[in-house]
Amino acid sequence: MARLVSLIVLTVLIVFLGITFFQVIAPFLLPLFLAGVVALLCQPMFRYFLTRTNDKTHWAAGLTTAAILAIIFVPLATGTVIATAELYAFAQERLEPAQWKPAYGKFRERFDADEIIDSVYDRFSPPPTDKDQLDEWKARRARFHEQVETNIRANTKAALDRVAERTMGFAASTFGIVGRIVSGIVGGLMFIIGLFYFLADGPVLLAATRELIPVNQDYQQQLLHRFNKVIRAVVLATFAAALGQGIATAAVLYFFVGHFFLLSIVCTLTAMIPLIGTWLVWAPVAIWLAADGHWGSALFVTAYGTIFIGTLDNIIRTYVLHSDAKLHPLLAFVSVLGGLQAMGLWGIFVGPTVASCLHALVKIFNTELKAFSEEKFANIKAKSASDMMHNTIPPDMAGEEKTPPPAPPEQPESKPHKKDPGKRRRKR
């Protein structure tokens, strides 16, 4: 009874302190989860540095952490600078007189700009009745047309320059977001420290955690193996889908606007943003083509982006999850979309992971239930067989083995009778 009371008190304390501890670490769960995923994915790099440092674990963990941060920031900074330079070049190219004049002429024809400008000018400066003043008035109106064209060109250039500057600003804000995750005040430090210790002391932490979990070690190993495979598959599926969408979109838009490298980077980055995707790139191009009078090209870009690019993400992601994580295509598709709707960006990673681990847990539970059932029914079967054998024994033979009945007393040997000669004589 005393032990039962002690277990109840310990259970209550563990639950209370566990809830309190969860509230304490809740703000850092996302950086720690990200650090664990990165540490899991970068094990080959960690083993490489471990070999180079003669099995100095903490040195290898520090070098791996620094290399990961460099791998994240250097390509992002380089790609942003190149994309911004191409955007500036694109703006200057479109504003050259050789391309600006035909484009502006099409704009005037398409939207009847001359009539609109003339009506505006006539409203504020009516034509004079004198012929001498009329010629001067027409000259002023022609100069007004030129001034409008100059203003449109200047405003277009300023708008494109602002777009390029905002691209750098967006990159800076992106760096700020990544910095808050990677090297920010608390979350970034938690990510870096968690990544370092997951690399350096990961096996020790894992072994200590497994000792505290009252589950068979083989089952824990199965869950860890499953988690490892799913995380790798989800990360690979995310980047493969974004890269595939980016290249496929840029390959088509290149024939209309050029600058394949810029489009590839922009489309790949937008493809990784949930609920936005590459339509943020191809939709303005389709609108520009329609405004320029190329209705067939605009419809083609719209249909291509909606039908092909829109489904390419689900096809690539589902295929990778099915082939690597061994998830059924329907389960992979539902877990990705459901996780995205429930948890946002991180739902792309958490959804398939939870689905796969749940599937593994159900299989483990089924195995344990079968073993328990076989053991239980084996005991029942053995008891039933024993009872049947006991019931088939006759009552006089049941129970303890009885001593055999005593042998009957031996009869004394009878001596042969001698014939009486007297009787023989009397008979005669």
UniProtKB/TrEMBL annotation:
Annotated source species: Symmachiella dynata
Pfam families membership: AI-2E_transport
Amino acid composition bias (Basic residues), ranges on this chain: 416-428
Subcellular location: Membrane
Membrane-traversing stretches: 7-26, 32-50, 62-85, 177-200, 230-256, 262-291, 298-320
The family this protein is said to belong to: Belongs to the autoinducer-2 exporter (AI-2E) (TC 2.A.86) family.
Presence of keyword Transmembrane: yes
InterPro entries per UniProt: AI-2E-like (IPR002549)
Topological relation to the membrane, as annotated: Multi-pass membrane protein
Record flagged with keyword Transmembrane: yes
Keywords attached to this entry: Membrane, Transmembrane, Transmembrane helix
Domain of life: Bacteria
GO cellular component: membrane
Protein name listed in UniProt: Putative inner membrane protein
Region called Disordered, residue ranges: 388-428
